[in-house]
Every structure is written in structure tokens, then in C-alpha cells.
Amino acid sequence: MISPPPRILCLTADQFPPFRVDVKVLLGDKLAKRGYRIDWILQSSVPCPSTYSCEYGGGTAHVCPTNLGTTRFARVRKHWIAVRHHWRVFALHRRERYDIVQVKDKYLGALFGLLACWLYGGQFVFWLSFPFPEESIAGARAGTARYPLIYLLRGHLLAFLQYRIIMRFAKHIVVQSEKMKSDVAGQGVLASKLYPVPMGIRLEDFKELRDGINLQPGAPRNLLYLGAIDLQRHIDFLVRVLALVKDRHPDVVLYIVGGSNDRRARELIEEEARRLGLEQSVILTGQIDRAQALKFVSQADVCLSPYYPSFILNSTSPTKLIEYMAMRKAVIANDHPEQQLVIRESGGGLCVPYDEQSFAEAADRLLS
Questions:
Q1: Count of alpha carbons within 13 angstroms of residue 70, beta-carbon side
Q2: Quick one: which of 216, 273, 209 has its CA closest to 246?
Q3: Mutual orientation of helices 236-245 and 263-275 as an angle, nearest 10°?
Q4: 3-state secondary structure of 297
Q5: 275 vs 279: CA distance, rounded Å
Q6: Which sign does the torsion angle of CA 270, 274, 277, 280 carry?
């Protein structure tokens, strides 16, 4: 007799409805089509009057309200609403007796999930998509954090919870890359519990955009970066690359498609553009929705994927690189662990050292 697929309760930091491929496609689409029953604990991405439940991704999504305010009080209230909602893991698991309780990128939620599995049975799975403890500590030490002491304390607290409690007692742990697996194992976590699941894309989402490219005749040639512009990513690097490229291609412009929660990141890019006299050649779109962002990619001549060499970013999974390739774009990436692998195995771009001259020479080669 064939056993039915396990029943899963998933608590994730992604808001409802999820848009990230790992949650929306891998769990909510692919596993659901294979018969998995997945219930969800999520926070709404838009205002709603109260908690509600609806059918989603192979099961039921239990969605709580949010607070979209930008004040400190609004952010605290938003997190408090989410924490209260996490408590539902106990009532749901007691009633449904899930085979697996999976928590993604939520530390207090992970503690609740662990305790629920201890009380009512089932396996606890933790999914880590980013090195959050190390990010907080690095931001505090580098002076890029708004409140360095708070970020430092938070980083050490999250590291203790992650490595000494959550990962110690989790049955399985999903990580973002092979590099993250080795980093986490280096903290004393059993490598046999770690499963790398790199981010990806759904090719069907790109077909219409890819086949509908319509470049304007006579438009300036352009370089494009798609992604976050947080301070730790040092995207002002690309402004200096542009300055070098303009020596050979005076008409080229740089599009930076993405945003940041920290206005200082955008200000740093704008200051560098002013310093180099490139204000008219650097276009920042700010945060826009994914469909609009991909339309910008469809018009790009050369797409850029720089990852600043750091412990935090070296373990990430380069989704933008795969998105560029799905749009049939010329790509320049630096020698980041996952990017090297993708470029080497696909032959779909140029992989160069992380320095301005190397990026500029690669851009000149592709533009020429």
C-alpha cells in the first residue's frame, strides 16, 4: 500500500499571497499538485479588517492583518500582530496532527513550532534563506545599522536561538546553497540534517515577456541591475563601472531596478553619480512590482549581477542571474560561489573578479 503524502503546516516570513518562488511555486504549486496537503500561517501584504482563512496552495491559508505604517510604532504593531498569529500553530497542530511543521525565517515562530511538535508529535523542519544573525552583527560592526547596539544584541540572540536551539532540535534544515550548508555545518550543526535548495524560477512566467521584446530604435544602450540596493550590497560599485564603460561607449546608461528600506543606500548611489558627473546616466527606479521590473530587464542590453564578497552574501542563491538568462540576456557576474557554478555549467554569461575594471572590460566586450 502506498502511503499518502505527508500533511504539512507551513509558517513563513513571506506575506500573503506569497510571491517568492520557493514558497509560491515549490510548495504552493508543485507539491500541492503531487497531493501534499499544506496549510499556511501567514500575514497579509495588504490591509484587512481581521484574521481570515481561505483556500491556497494545496490547503488552507490562515491570514492575519498587517500594519503598513512606516513609524516605529507601526512596525512594532505589525510584528506584534504576527507574533500573536504564530500562536495558532499550537491549536492547528493539536487539531490536525500534521506530519511536518515547517517554519521559514521566523525565529519565535520556530520556537513555537518546536514546542508544538514536542507536545503533539510530528517532525519539525526549519528553512533558512539568509544568514540573518550574521547580517545584524556585521551591520553593527560596520556602522551601517541604524541602531548598532540593538543590532549587535539582536544578532547574537538570533545566533544563539538558531544554532543552539532551533537547528539542534530540528529534524531537517533547508538552506539556500551549498555554501550556506558548509557555513552552518561550521557552527556545529550536523551536515546530515542540512539540505540545500537553491532559489529558481518558473520558466512559464517569462515566456510572454521574453518573446515580446521590442527595443526602441535609436534608444541609448544600457546596463541594468535588478535587485535590492541595501548598503551591504555596495551597489555604488556599478556607478564606478559605468564611468569606465563610458570611456568607450559615451551613450550608455545604467538602470538600477530595485529599492531598499534604508534611504541611505539610494543616497550613496546618487552621491557617487554626482561625484562622477553621471546624474543623467544613472536611473534608479525605486521599488517596483516584479512584472514592471522584468519589463525593464526585457529592454536591457547587458545585465549585471555583482555580489559584494562577504560572508553574508557568499551563501546567497543568485535568482537574478537565472531571471536574466530566462530573458535571453547577456550577463556579467562576479566570482561568487553559486554564480561561478551557474556560469560554468550554462555558459550563459561572463564571470569576472569583483573589481570595477574587470566589470567594465566585460561590459565593453558585450556592448561591442
A1: 3
A2: 273
A3: 20
A4: helix
A5: 9
A6: positive
106 within 8 A of 127, measured Cβ to Cβ = no
Q: Looking at this protein, which amino acid is placed at residue 100? A: I
Helix 236-245 to helix 356-367 angle, to the nearest 10 degrees? 50
What residues have CB less than 8 Å from 198, skipping those under 6 apart?
Answer: 176, 177, 317, 338
Q: Dig out the grid coordinates for 100 from the structure.
A: 511536518
3-state helix, strand, coil in the chain (%, to 5): 50, 20, 30
Q: What is the pLDDT of residues 70-125, one digit of tens each?
A: 788 888 888 899 999 999 999 999 999 999 999 999 999 999 999 999 999 999 99
CA dihedral 2, 4, 6, 7 (to 10 degrees): -170
pLDDT beneath 70: ranges in the chain = 1-2, 208-219
Q: 223 with 253: CB under 8 angstroms?
A: yes
Dihedral sign from CA coordinates of 338, 341, 345, 349: positive
Using an 8 Å Cβ cutoff, are 351 and 340 in contact? yes
DSSP 276: T
Q: Is 354 helix (H, G, I), strand (E, B) or coil?
A: coil
This prediction has a pTM of 0.87
Distance CA 331, CA 216 (A): 21
C-beta of residue 87 within 8 angstroms of C-beta of residue 112 = yes
Side chain identity, residue 149: L
Residue 281 contacts residue 246 (beta carbons within 8 Å)? yes
Alpha carbon 303 to its chain's center: 18
- 201: which 3 cell numbers? 524560477
Q: What angle do CA 190, 200, 269 make, to 5 degrees?
A: 100
